[in-house]
Amino acid sequence: MEEYGFSPLAIPTPMETPARFNLSLDILLPLLLFPTLFLAHRIRKDYHAYLALGPGGVPSTPAGYLRICILRPFAVRDPLSPPSLPCTLLPQEGYLQSRNLPNRSGPRPKVVGIVPHRQTTQRASAEMYAALVKDIHGLVDAHPSVLYTGTSCFEKHSTGIFCTLGPAALSRQDQAQQRQRLTCNGEVCHAHPIDGSLHLTLHPADVRFVLEKGWGQRHPIAREDWWWWRRSVPSGFVMIYAPRNEDERRCVLEIIRAAAWWVSGDAITACVPE
């Protein structure tokens, strides 16, 4: 065999093969163990951060967490970018432009999560949240023929405001032309006891107004792409930051009025054909 360039020493004997195999495992196992432990630690930490957000539209279970992990790659990249305003949508102007809503002072709060979607800084005090809830019920009591309260269709836990004159009261033509304002059972808004923030649905022009004035940001899965299969929330679904004082509470209530105006269909007419 040596005359052909082969040496008997190059061929492992039966006794050498297990030894080399064991040596490879001794090197490979530590290389795999440390990344696996690090990944498990990150997943555990992320799961507990998900649970810390409190109850929401997705169960606080490993199955619910897995659903959120699947949604993360599809979240809106820039929550401060407004949705489009179709030229066929009437009216073109929203509710808030004529209300002289001021700019929200200071930096925006830190917001995390998808479902739940919560503030982690600048949260409302218990007293401020109680006052906000009282304002919300007062708004409903002032318009009993249009608004009513119930368990949030989106959140599944907190109290929400619903419109009796929502999409169900529209003609089929109007429903087809006003799909941007379709919400879950006509829900207008719901508040979050854990941080004092709200989720609600606005006219596209009002979404832009709220973003520019610093009062909120779009929900992570409020996409409007044609390929987006999960239409669980409207494209105008936004978070409104928790009020920190009485002046901000009055502004937030005005934004809730804008949501009721939009979802109820008040002053919304069918698109005029060309």
Topology diagram in text:
Blueprint: H1 16-52, H2 62-71, E1 111-113, E2 117-119, H3 126-142, E3 147-151, E4 159-163, H4 172-177, E5 187-191, E6 198-201, H5 204-213, E7 216-218, E8 237-240, H6 246-264
Antiparallel strand pairs: 1-2, 3-4, 4-5, 5-6, 6-8, 7-8
Description:
A hairpin with a 6-residue loop joins strand 5 (187-191) and strand 6 (198-201). Residues 166-173 and 267-274 have low confidence and may be disordered. Helix 3 (126-142) runs parallel beside helix 6 (246-264). By secondary structure, this protein is α+β, with helices and mostly antiparallel strands. The protein has a domain at 111-264. It contains six helices and eight strands; from the N terminus they run H-H-E-E-H-E-E-H-E-E-H-E-E-H. A six-stranded antiparallel β-sheet has the order 3-4-5-6-8-7, with helices on one face. Strands 1-2 form a two-stranded antiparallel ribbon. 36% of the residues lie in helices and 12% in strands.
